[in-house]
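Lab notebook, bench 4. Still working through the backlog of constructs that have no structural model yet. Next entry is a single chain of 365 residues. Request: give me the structure tokens for it.
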Amino acid sequence: MIVGLVVNPVAGLGGAVALKGSDGAGVQARALALGAVPRAGERAAAALRALHARRPGVLVRTVAGAMGEESARAAGVPYEVAFRAGESTGAADTRAAVAALAGADLLLFAGGDGTARDVLDAGPVGAVLGVPAGVKVYSGCFAVSPFAAGVTAAGYDGRTLEAEVVDLDEEAHRAGRVGARLYGTLRVPAARARLSGRKTGSSAAPPGSVESVARAAVDAMAPGVSYALGPGATTLAVGRRLGLELTPLGVDLVRDGELLARDVTEQTLLTHAMSQVTCAVLSVIGGQGFVIGRGNQQFSPRVLERLAGITVLATQQKLAALGGRPLLVDSGDPLADAALSGPARVVTGHRESVVYRIQSASEDL
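Model written out:
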């Protein structure tokens, strides 16, 4: 079996530094200046380790340097270089790499929704599978984690299904206007339980249900405690309940009904959590079930370790739509994810909550 690998080395750069995406050279330069650390390569390496542990005879065919070769070398897997990109990699390099790897039995690509669009534009002839490494990762063609991508690749038997590629206008996204557009579909391995699925919104929730959840969250806030409110429509409703205008897709800090800081970075959140009692208030991504690791990378493993508590918010309709699948955490650190795993109380309305299972996305599903 030959597995192709393409890595977008700048995918996910903007997450922890609150840039809400990584598209464009300007955004990437700004992210690096703010202290962002590239993670796509190591997430690709994690997928290859899981693949190699289960199917050691696989040959990885990849791209020279940071677009794949470095990940294969770090994972210790047999590989060969089939394509060399320019020094400054971009969308055209991704498309060219996909074309060069057309002979692979399965193509793994590490990145986010923008990378998925580039793969789609290249017209892959066979099955592909995304290793989640972007900020948003709303498309359905990604595995739920690098581990799941590797396990799925190892078990690939030729059966496929169609998965959607969606993306957002990042400039509109940064301004708080969310509108995902469907660009097409890709053939992915038929392992639905390990696929993230396409993100869905909260529009199906009955009027008032989100406001009921917000009321419960505000009523539970303790005096003198700081609360880091993650992105999402539900946490925006918490802000409205408090009489505050929050960042639509960022992380904001509040205490005693007052806004302490808007749209904070991971470093700012860590500094605050180290000096003040701080809890997180997080919503669930509809259709996918993620609590940590999709669009809220400010909640890094080191921040999670410092938090005094986490409150998870979701309407009953959003939980029911998961069909019994667990809520997922993918912080990038399996130990941090394992610490959050297990039964958890999810606030579903005013004086309403349910106990629901949270699971590390690195566990086999």
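Notes after review: The first helix runs from residue 25 to 33. The chain has a mean pLDDT of 90. Flag for follow-up if needed.
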